Each structure stands twice: as structure tokens, then as C-alpha cells.
Amino acid sequence: MPPTTVHLLRHGEVHNPDRVLYGRLPEFHLSELGRQMAQRAAEYFTERVRNGANICYLVSSPLTRAQETAEPTAAALKLEIVTDERIIEAENRFEGLSDVKRHLRDPRHWMYLRNPMRPSWGEAYTAQVLRVMAAAEDARKAAEERGGPGAEAVMVSHQLPIWVTRLAAESRRLWHDPRRRQCTLASVTSLKFDGEHLAGVDYCEPSADLLPGAANIPGA
Q: Coiled-coil intervals in this record (predicted)?
């Protein structure tokens, strides 16, 4: 039986000239470059379909930047965008601040830095993994119900939830250096399921050539 695949697509670049750690704040839209990245993702999934993939289910975080990233894929593959709160960005106590490194030198914020392994400044890594994996399992089931064995789903989410889900899938520790995440803008992290068993993880960067010109602020 062919594996069912759930692709975790990170959103494209956001228009953020003030370099705000935007977290779950509303109305942060894709930049023009981010829209190009979203189109690249749509082309990547369209090419998969041309090569025989059956992508039949599309889910997005409710945040504006994720919804806008999902739109070209929805149009290209004629899919409805299903919104799922479980794949939203991680909570972060520094949300809304710009120049976060400067704020970290302020003693008033030091209490939030006491445990980087949790992390103490935001939503626990384990909580993120649990909610994203639950959403991925539901997406797997929905894809199989619509397309049968070997069907595929796409979930548009955010860097940190995707990255810690991959770490968990690969049985690696969840705490990490945010600068070393392998989850670039508009990248695709693919979870492959053999029935209910998670059998493997793939990763690719359809917008690799656009990344040198992109602004990219580590999240939570």
C-alpha cells in the first residue's frame, strides 16, 4: 500500500519592515516576495500531481500569512481551504516586540528566559507537537477518505510548530537553537504515513533561490 503523505508547508515571507515578532497577531500579510514563494509552492504541488500524486485535502492556520500562502495552491488544485486552529503559530511572550534581542537585555524579561528547554517564554514544545500531530492525523484520514490509499494533504503552518513536529517525528530532542532550524520560508516538510504509523520525513525548498533576498526573523 502506498504511503499517505501530509505536507507541512511553511508560509512565505511577510511584509514586516519594523521586524516585529508577529506571532499570532492579525493582519500580517505576505510581501511581494512572499506571494512569489506561495506561487512556487503551488507550482511544486501541481508538478507532484502531474507526476501522479493525488493531493486532495488542503488545511491552513487561521493567520493571514498562512491563508495567503494557501490560496495559490487552492486555486491550482481546485481545493477548498480548511482552517484548523491547531496548526497556528506558537504562543510567545515577546509577541509584538521589535528588536527582540534588545528587549532580552532588559531585566524585566529575564524571568521568561529561565528554562529554554520548555521554553519558558512561550508555548511548550511538547504542546505544539501534540496539536500539530493531531491535526496531521486528521488530515491523513481526510485525504484517505477522499482519495484512497496514497492520497496526500497539505497543511500550511509556521516555522516553530513545523520544526518541533519534525524533531519529534525523527526522535530528536525538542529544545534547539532557533537559528539552526531547517524550515525555511515556503519550505515543505513531508510526513509519510504507513497506515497510522509515521514511517518517514522528507524536506524540500521550492523557493530556495528566493531565500537570499528574504527577511527571516526566528520565531518563538
A: none
